[in-house]
Design brief:
The complex is a heterodimer. Chain A folds into two domains: 32 residues; 218 residues, Immunoglobulins (Immunoglobulin-like). Helix content of chain A is 23%, strand content 39%. In chain A, strands 8, 11, 12, 14 and 15 form a five-stranded antiparallel β-sheet that branches. In chain A, strands 3-2-4-5 form a four-stranded mixed β-sheet. Chain A is globular, with a radius of gyration of 25 Å. By secondary structure, chain B is mainly β. Chain B has three domains: 88 residues, no CATH class; 182 residues, Beta Barrel (Porin), CATH 2.40.160; 216 residues, Porin, CATH 2.40.160. Chain B has two helices and 33 strands. In chain B, the strands form five sheets. Chain B has a 24-stranded antiparallel beta barrel. In chain B, strands 6-7 form a two-stranded antiparallel sheet. In chain B, a hairpin with a 5-residue loop joins strand 6 and strand 7. The radius of gyration of chain B is 25 Å and the shape is globular. Chain B starts with a helix and ends with a strand. The chains are: A alpha+beta, B mainly beta. Chains A and B meet through helix 1, strand 1, helix 2 and helix 4 of A and strand 13, strand 14, strand 15, strand 16 and strand 17 of B.
Amino acid sequence: MIPKLYNRIRKAGRCLTGLSVMAWLLVSCSYIPESERLIPVLPASVNRNVLIEDFTGQRCMNCPTASDIIEGLVREYGEETVVPVAIHSGPLGFVTNERFKGLKTVTGDEYFARWESDHQPVGMIDRKGLTDYPVWGAKVYEELQKPSTVDIAVSAHVTDSGLDVAADVTSLDGEVNGRLQLWVVEDSVTAFQMMPDGTRKDDYVHRHVFRAAVNGTWGEDISVRKGETVSRRHEGFILDDEWNKGRMYVVAFVYDESGVLQVVRKNLSH
Amino acid sequence: MIVPGRIGRLAVFCLILFSSVALNARERGRVRLVGSIQSDILFQDEDDDAATDDRQLLSNTYVDLMLYGRHLDAGTRIEYMEHPLPGYESDFKGWGVPSLWVKGRLGTTEVTAGSFYEQFGSGMVLRIYENRSLGIDNSLTGGRIVVRPAKGFTAKLLSGRQRRYWSLNDSWVSGADLEVSLGPSITLGGSWVNKYEKDEFILADERHRFNLPEYVNAWDVRGSWNNGPWSLSVEYAGKSQDPSFDNGYSYGKGSAAFVSGSFSRSGMSILLQGKRSENMSFRSKRSMTGISSFINYMPAFTHDQTYALAALYPYSTQMAGGELAWQTEIGYNFRRNTVLGGKYGMNLKVDYSHIGWEEETYYEDLGILLSRKWSNALKLNVMYMRQRYNMTVVQGHGGMVDSDIYILDGKIQVFSGFSLRTELQYLNTDNDEGDWKYGLVELSLAPHWMFSLADMYNAGVTREHYCQGSVSFSKGAHRVQLGYGRTRAGYNCSGGVCRYVPETKGVTVSYNCSF
């Protein structure tokens, strides 16, 4: 029995030694020292604007982290080039009650349901599919460098009867058959937010808050031939008295099955 | 391999053809055809405002077919989840033939080609498994070799791509495992797992991207000893740099240690185990979120609770962060015809779990369960549980939930083949939604019929009732259950993994069959 046991131990020892050496070699090969962990990247050459739809919620602990990613991209490329919209929605969104202000909207929930998201935060870059926030930077970088096929000029004027919005869409390359979407967005709204450490911050400043769709939840059909311009006008859209019109702007974008073709933003004028 | 549509139908046709031949051969004792059907169906109420799918009929259906021969086995599984039950990830939806495999055996060697499941040790570096209630199936598609050259000596080698719902992740997972029994008492083992995943463009900030390692390695060593009533298991695992979404793209290495000891003799049992893990989330896709694509599995350190209110706040293992957990269970059987044991004996079980990290408690419970038979017909279980559940850590909201849970479970054998069981449960807490009450009546007409009626009532914030009734019939290999009721939204956790389940209301039908 002892010789048998000894032979087994020898065989096991040889195999384990072989495995250990192999494992050690592989572990050694895949180690990246601290000085080599970041690779410099040149800023993207900007050929178009990019829309970020951020499905967020006031009860979503990880959403402030996603918001920080967005603010970094806006700082880098400018708020006219990277156009984020925070759509408060889903099970972690919050509706106003007697104690707290909520930013969730019915329309926002329609968008959340349409894209069938099952977690938050989650977003879309130029409506190219749902993605998580660690890859938003790379997706924006990629989208910025694509050529723009559409040009949009927008005016947004507040009158006594409401908001008048006009959009001129010009095709730069080939015929465009898609939809024109017009949103009103309010920046820097103070309301509570759950933070990553589990605490509630009651004076959190929410950026780029989606308020309403001016021309319907999914926008309106638009067809533009190459070199031509098509205009759309909407008058008398009612702005809620609770909204701060001085911090509001219109986001206008054209999209089709391939995604968002171009997006612009325009501050409200009085 | 994922084979929907035409190729899937061809695969099923081939298997049915092979089955027909095999059925003939079966009569000559050479090949066995076995299989199973599992179908869970929900007919949603038309006025169910909480419904997440406009369709009324939702179903998860699985059909497994296996052929076992002298040297060759083969199998396949057909899945239909085109309109799945609520509470699964959105990519869970689909249908096709996600599993197809062939296994050959010759002497001490076994070779598998196709889809397979495997576990090394406790699973801390590799656990490939299926859990249908959670929607987990992370099978590998590739090849595996198992060699048993001598008694007590097993070596395994495998490589493949991992399934994620209806596709395969691009990365390759490879591994080797060696286990040796040094006599009847001692077993030693070691494993190594490698993941190869191509580089990816992920920005660290606006001016830098991460330099991501293409090879990630995990390894473990383990040993176990058994001698009479004593047993001891130890395991240590490590992981190389693995920047991922789970760990915020950090370059720290992962590690885990696990120790378990137990003693069992003469009506007494003691279990004591501890675990420390840090940064051990190991996926086949570094940017993945949710419950899919895990290569490994960290053992859960909480007891699987079967009572409804004891399972109301289930804990899920924190893979990416750190955890320090320990668990103990003491059981004692008071013998019959003693003062405490009474005429039929009594069993006492005390268990305690604590999980936390850096002075923060994630989960803690203390449970005391008394089981006693009072007569030939009557058996009672009485349980008290004190629970602390850090809802913020597990679910992302809610703070700490402290609760006391009281349970009375009685079973009466009215006459042979006819038994009645009732449960009364009460959860008392000042946190979350407040107190809960639960009642269950279960009537069993052996050997075929079972009737049950249950109600879970929130006596705290919502004052909502969640009633459910069901009838089940089983005969031979068949079991069918018909039910109606309303379930609350919550988390379904099993073995350290949880998924969110939305509220449902409607008729449920479940059918299971094995052949």
